[in-house]
């Protein structure tokens, strides 16, 4: 089962540059990256609603949702920033540079989140291997951007 989850993460990662290109194309036809992002989120919301209804999930209970910390509600803002930024940047800096920088930012934040165990992540201390991994990825960003 572990290989399935690892493969799922890999395939989802492959969708990131494709999503940015698709949304960038939509931005050309819809008067900008913000409109394209809004349309993208509307389509995604409709798709998720369809899946939830088809799978007959129970609706969340308002009392339980009220117990969520304030920051648990900010994921949509972060997703909107990601989608809008991708749609805007893709035609300006290219897929490889954009994704390299996105992945570098993701990895640095992931190491910080793991170190402190924030936002429900299990705690994994920063160590030499993780620092070297981040530095190698940053070197990769430089190489991708230079060539």
UniProtKB/TrEMBL annotation:
UniProt entry keywords in alphabetical sequence: Membrane, Signal, Transmembrane, Transmembrane helix
Entries under InterPro entries matching the protein: YdcZ
Stretch forming the signal peptide: 1-20
Transmembrane residue ranges: 34-57, 69-89, 95-116, 128-146
Record Pfam families: DMT_YdcZ
Listed name of the protein: DMT family transporter
Lineage: Bacteria, Pseudomonadati, Pseudomonadota, Gammaproteobacteria, Oceanospirillales
């Amino acid at each position: 089962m572990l290989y399935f989850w690892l493969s799922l993460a890999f395939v989802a990662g492959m969708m990131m540059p494709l999503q940015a290109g698709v949304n960038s194309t939509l931005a050309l036809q819809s008067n900008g990256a913000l409109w394209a992002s809004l349309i993208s989120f509307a389509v995604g919301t409709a798709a998720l609603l369809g899946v939830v209804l088809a799978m007959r999930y129970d609706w969340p209970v308002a009392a339980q949702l009220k117990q969520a910390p304030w920051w648990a509600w900010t994921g949509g803002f972060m997703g909107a920033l990601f989608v809008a930024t991708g749609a805007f940047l893709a035609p300006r800096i290219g897929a490889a540079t954009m994704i390299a920088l996105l992945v570098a930012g993701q990895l640095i934040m992931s190491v910080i989140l793991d170190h402190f165990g924030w936002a429900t992540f299990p705690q994994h201390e920063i160590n030499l291997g993780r620092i070297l991994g981040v530095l190698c990825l940053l070197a990769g960003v430089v190489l991708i951007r230079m060539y």
